[in-house]
Design brief:
This protein is α/β, with parallel strands linked by helices. About 45% of the residues lie in helices and about 20% in strands. α3 packs across α4, α3 packs across α5 and α4 packs parallel to α5. It contains five helices and seven strands. The radius of gyration is 15 Å and the shape is globular.
């Protein structure tokens, strides 16, 4: 089962996804996709890990999402935006190459017998990016979100903390 949870910044995506995971498993996994950019970011990541209780099994994986997932587990993947950033940076902002690589990695999730709850951001609904690289990333995010939503069993849009079922 693949759940796709999307919405704007601070819309309640992570809380909703974590609550759903805890309803489905007493020991869910939390797969964080963020690359650690500096000491300040490491502190933020460590704080997020500490906020989750002992029920959670934390995993960090920058690109190969399917690699650490165990069959029959419940996994929250947080988040697509940071995961895509890793491809985007590594390809030197090449949207086509990033999208291709991300789709290949995402598609591996579809053959795993697990409950996957993947969180993304709807960055294209906000302020128009003022830089070319920002606009390119917004396009990449939008195309990948479409691919994930198309393959999801359920899709939820979070609006002001309220889940709206879109699929």
């Amino acid at each position: 089962m693949l759940y796709y949870i999307t919405g704007g910044e601070r819309s309640g995506k992570s809380r909703y996804a974590q609550n759903l995971a805890l309803q489905l498993s007493s020991t869910p996994y939390y797969l964080a996709t963020s690359r650690i950019w500096d000491d300040n970011h490491r502190e933020r990541v460590d704080r997020h890990i500490a906020e989750r209780d002992d029920q959670w099994i934390s995993i960090e994986e920058e690109k190969e999402l399917a690699k650490p997932i165990i069959e029959h587990s419940v996994v929250v993947i947080d988040c697509v935006t940071l995961w895509l950033t890793n491809f985007f940076v590594d390809t030197k902002n090449d949207v086509s190459a990033s999208l291709l690589q991300a789709k290949v990695e995402f598609d591996k999730l579809l053959s795993i017998d697990a409950t996957i709850i993947i969180i993304s951001n709807e960055i294209g609904m906000g302020v128009h990016a003022t830089t070319e690289v920002g606009r390119k990333f917004t396009e990449l995010q939008g195309w990948m979100n479409q691919h994930i939503a198309k393959n999801a069993d359920k899709a939820i849009l979070m609006v002001s903390g309220i889940p709206v079922t879109i699929k």
